[in-house]
Amino acid sequence: MDGTSKTIVVGVDGSEPSLAALRWALDEARLREARVVAVYVWLFPSLAARHGEIPPLGFEGLRRSAEELLDEALEAVADSAEGVEVERVVAEGAPPERLVAVADGAELLVLGSRGLGGFAGLLLGSVSQQCAHHARCPVVIVHYGERSGGGASAGGSSA
Ligand SMILES: Nc1ncnc2c1ncn2[C@@H]1O[C@H](COP(=O)(O)OP(=O)(O)O)[C@@H](O)[C@H]1O
Ligand SMILES: [Mg+2]
Fold first, then answer.
1. Whose CA is closest to atom 5 on ligand 1?
2. 17, 19, 39, 80: least buried by Cβ within 10 Å?
């Protein structure tokens, strides 16, 4: 392992709150001289929500769609990514379980306060809640949309 070995893992599901979490993770990684691993865990229901119907794609097509979602998210925050090494990980399965596994040994697991929600959210349950309970590293929940301007603030209480 060369270069920096410190890793900040961030869960990205394409939602605005998850983009806020990604930005926060990138800023924190710059301060800590860590790299960022951006993870999207895909499951059939979450991709069905993205396509508005059950997608007419095979496993490979679904995986590619998941990679596209992650690419689009990273493009959306490109201005925050300068100087930070970013790795993309697309995993299939139960989001909390996969996120906790990828974050094993990481400095931090960063998540948004809300996600895609809706029907897919109901099927998957609360990802952030499960991760907060089961992660083996510190977990940061980046709050989103609670201030005027739609900005993000980190931490459990905001002035
Ligand atoms: N499939 C996923 N892959 C990666 N990260 C996810 C996934 N789903 C949720 N997350 C992370 O968890 C955060 C909270 O989402 P979640 O707990 O699912 O809330 P909601 O119930 O509003 O969808 C998201 O902002 C994101 O950081
Ligand atoms: Mg969700």
1. 11
2. 80
Q: Is residue 114 part of a domain?
A: yes
Kindly report the pTM of this predicted structure. 0.85
> The domain containing residue 12 runs over which residues?
7-154
Please, which residues have CB less than 5 A from ligand 2, an ion? 115-116, 121
Sequence-separated (6 or more) residues with CB below 8 Å from residue 90:
39, 40, 41, 42, 63, 66, 67, 70
CATH code for position 61? 3.40.50.620
Please indicate, yes or no, if residue 54 is contained in any of the structural domains: yes
Give the count of domains, the chain.
Answer: 1
Residue 151 has what pLDDT? Answer: 47
Indicate whether 1 belongs to any domain.
no
Q: How far apart are CA 128 and CA 35, in angstroms?
A: 21
With a 6 Å cutoff on the Cβ, whether 14 touches ligand 1 is no
- Provide the pLDDT for residue 59: 74
